[in-house]
Amino acid sequence: MLLEYWNAAPVASIIFLFTIATSIYAFNNPQLFGKFMLHPYSIAKGGKLYTFITSGLIHADWMHLFFNMFTFFFFAFRLETIIGHWQFGVLYLVSLIVSDIPTAIKHRENYGYSSLGASGAVSAVLFSYILFDPLNLILVMFIPMPAILFAVLYLAYCMYMSKNGRDHINHDAHFFGALTGLILTVILVPGAVAHFINQLSSIWQ
Question: Which residue range(s) make up the domain with 50?
Answer without folding.
Answer: 2-204
